[in-house]
Amino acid sequence: MTPHVVPDPQAGAAVKAADRAHVFHSWSAQGLIDPLAVAGAEGSYFWDYDGNRYLDFTSGLVYTNIGYQHPKVVAAIQEQAAKLATFAPAFAVDVRSEAARLIAERTPGDLDKIFFTNGGAEAVENAVRMARLHTGRHKVLSAFRSYHGATSTAINLTGDPRRWASDTGSAGVVRFWAPFLYRSPFYAETEQQECERALAHLEDTIAFEGPGTIAAIILETVPGTAGIMTPPPGYLTGVREICDKYGIVFVLDEVMAGFGRTGKWFAAEHFDVVPDLLTFAKGVNSGYVPLGGVAISEKIAATFETRPYPGGLTYSGHPLACAAAVATIQVMEDEKVVENAARIGETVLGPGLRELAERHPSVGEVRGMGVFWALDLVRNKETREPLVPYNAAGEANAPMAAFGAAAKKNGLWPFVNMNRTHAVPACNVTADEVKEGLTALDAALTVADEHTV
User: Fold this and answer.
1) I want to staple 117 with a disulfide (CB 3.0 to 4.6 A). Which of 22, 122, 176, 440 is the partner?
2) Are 50 and 75 in contact (CB under 8 A)?
């Protein structure tokens, strides 16, 4: 594939100038950023106005599960815009109903009611509201290594440092340690130990907080931005049992892990667990039009059968977003995208990353499934000291910055967070594209290796 535009640096400079004059970017010190001006994208690639092409190993923000500009989804949005571009959420609209039906068919268990939002953070906000109203309780337990969104409740539930500036300490959130054997907080030596000790720790936390005060436990089925830590066998079923024991609502956040990312429609399928509420967004329509939602179990839905649910959004179930979701799900079925993600992870991406780990002293651990992988970069494999300190910035983060720059120089756009790089290409990525990405990663890791001891 080659860029579809003739290089035009002058146009790129104009785009950059307008951005710097008027766009306020998220999570950034505005005067310290230099955003790339993007001229176009297709499939697993995008390119700038200078004609530089990048293989996107970030899938946008882990949402372009079917890649950029899929013609069938673009056509569906165009057709829906001509038919009915928008309509208020209180009405029954065919494409909205169809999107809900297709999603409900794929969610585990009895999660058959769909509340639509504009994105993942709003999905989490509403899931927590539903849990609190259903139980009459207020506290919510979430894990330290987590990310649930940037709106008020979601940011307080988040475990990573992005919450610090907004954490009021009064949102009813209690945090606990979820399992992560590579950096175990429980001094575990095996997955079984990690699972048992993590469940005991969770139940102890519940006991000391007061079971009757806790509305919900929320977990990312496979934590995403926090490090793609696949839970050990038995952990999620253990959490399900604890929730049932104390009448606590179990919420699984599949905003990032859902819709094929792990090689299943939803990551919960890997662990044979059904939550009471499941949040989704991102891959539901590959991010082509903002859409998220909450899949709701029968018992939670029954709470609001005759009692109004006190929540809503002007653009809930927006027709253009729902048309994109319907088309995306159909593409994923027709083109066997979920199966491709599983196969690529098992035969190309996973083995390729593990091979890199064997040769590079900077790679401490490889973990993941499907097209959802992380490399934990370290200064020393024996001590597992991270390549950069937790929440490093400036000069302290220089090794990771150098790694990222090297990847881009080699035509790979990497997902870099703290001391990790995540390999999260589109779910329909080809084996050849993955091999291209692995070659670029190989070169970039030699830069990271320079900072090992």
Assistant:
1) 122
2) no
Paired tokens of 290: 């903002």
How far apart are the two ends of the chain, measured CA to CA in Å? 40
Closest CA to 142 of 117, 118, 167: 167
* Nearest Cα residue to 353 out of 251, 435, 410: 435
Query: What are the residues facing 249 on neighbouring strands?
Result: 216
Supply the pLDDT for residue 170.
Answer: 73
Residue 240 structure tokens:
């399900």
pTM greater than 0.90 (yes/no): yes
Q: Which residue has the tokens 């038919």?
A: 83
Q: DSSP assignment, residue 190?
A: S
Predicted local distance difference test score (pLDDT) of residue 410: 97
Residue 2: is its pLDDT beyond 60? no
pLDDT in tens, 154-176: 999 999 899 999 888 777 999 99
Q: Mind listing the pLDDT tens digit for each residue in 85-110?
A: 999 999 999 999 999 999 999 999 99
Place of tokens 């159909």: 330
Tally the residues of the chain. 453
Q: Phi/psi of residue 218, each to 5°?
A: -115, 130
Q: How far is CA 396 from CA 27, 319, 377, 387, 393, in A?
A: 18, 46, 14, 10, 6
User: How many alpha carbons fall within 13 Å on the CB side of residue 84?
Assistant: 14
Which one has a higher pLDDT value, 152 or 348?
Answer: 348
Q: For 361-371, what is the mean pLDDT?
A: 98
Among 317, 244, 262, which Cα is nearest to 96's?
A: 317
Phi, psi of 449, rounded to the nearest 5 degrees: -60, -30
Write the single-letter amino acid at 169.
G
Whether residue 173 contacts residue 163, with contact meaning beta carbons closer than 8 Å, is answered with: no
The two tokens of residue 407 are 């990847």
Taking a C-beta distance cutoff of 8 angstroms, is the pair 101, 178 a contact? no
Q: Are strands 249-253 and 277-280 parallel, antiparallel or unpaired?
A: parallel
Q: Band of the pLDDT at 420, cuts 50, 70, 90?
A: very high
Give the 3-state DSSP-derived string for 267-326, with helices as H, strands as E and coil as C.
CHHHHCCCCCEEEECHHHCCCCCCCEEEEECHHHHHHCCCCCCCCCCCCCCCHHHHHHHH
* Nearest by Cα to 180 from 222, 124, 240, 119: 222
